[in-house]
Design a protein that fits this description.
With about 350 residues, the chain is an alpha/beta fold. About 45% of the residues lie in helices and about 10% in strands. The structure holds S-adenosylmethionine (SAM). S-adenosylmethionine (SAM) binds next to loops. The site of S-adenosylmethionine (SAM) has 24 residues, from loops.
Amino acid sequence: MAELAGVSVRTLHHYDEIGLVRPSARTAGGYRAYAAGDVERLREVLGYRRLGFGLREIADLVDDPDTDAVAHLRRLRGLLVEQRDRAAAMVTAIDKELEARALGIRTTPEEQLQVFGAQLYEVIGSAYPATRCTEPRIAARIWDALGDARTVLNVGAGTGSYEPGDRDVTAVEPSAVMRAQRPAGAAPCVAASAEQLPFEDGSFDAAMAVSTVHHWQDAVAGLREMRRVARRVVVLTYDASSPGWAQRFWLSRDYLPEFEGLLDHWPSLADLTGAIGGHAEPVLIPWDCADGFFEAYWRRPEAYLDEHVRRAVSVWSRVGPEAEQRAVDGLRDDLSSGRWAERNRDLVAHDAAELGLRLLVA
Ligand SMILES: C[S@@+](CC[C@H](N)C(=O)[O-])C[C@H]1O[C@@H](n2cnc3c(N)ncnc32)[C@H](O)[C@@H]1O
């Protein structure tokens, strides 16, 4: 069996021990005897393994009573095709960078990450759950805005931090790394992008998107797609169009000016609300915000010195290691000299901050 499947005997024993692939019988001599059904199951396990799924998640997949062998083959095929296309896009991007380097042109960190196409989260996603989770006060605002929607589509769902537990949720997430980190029992998740939602018009009562629109290749197209497939749309995003927006947060203003450049081509708030035909409401960030997004630690500056905090926020990977190191060194110096406290003295008096977070509702 090991020889046929191209795995070690130890692997087969391990799968047996953890209950992932248990042979139906033993020979008189004590050897494991694999029946046709066991072979089918082993093939599924190895297929998902090859795609990078963890053993725990594979167990959930292959034990799902609603998925038969044909459904597994279809799913595996879809995932493999997606992986092949992504590999082809990476080869093209690498060729482009090799050409640029041969001509002596240096690429920016962001261009280097484009090697991964839209899948920045394939690279940084595994660090996400360390500090990213539901912030209950923000979740309450989102769930309120969903109104009485029963069926909800969560676009750019990630690990599902803001999925309401009392509704019928379908998630959409393009990154396999993020999908694999969804907790057991989370809503079913479709591999797709906001710009092309694989659903009929008006399929859902509501569509939501949280902290994801700024990652989409075409934010307006994605929002229009949400509008198309759902009767109500709720989006948590940023207003980067009001004058002086980059100056409102001390971290980008004093330590990481590169942040502004990341949202250079970002549509205005009017374009974003226009795409869904709705309005924007400010969302204040509590001083003890549980979800560790970029601005979350506005009153807890020491947090930004922690590598785990930074790795769970895409901004730090997108600005590149040099800017990150400079910002962290500068902040560390100012914290120990008391300069940060002096400059930001007024912050301690606030329990929540207006840093451009907006809830778009339509
Ligand atoms: C900061 S995470 C937010 C995840 C989740 N919504 C939350 O609030 O925890 C951004 C997510 O957007 C996803 N994403 C990136 N490009 C996307 C696209 N074009 N369409 C849909 N999702 C996308 C990423 O893979 C990532 O999981």
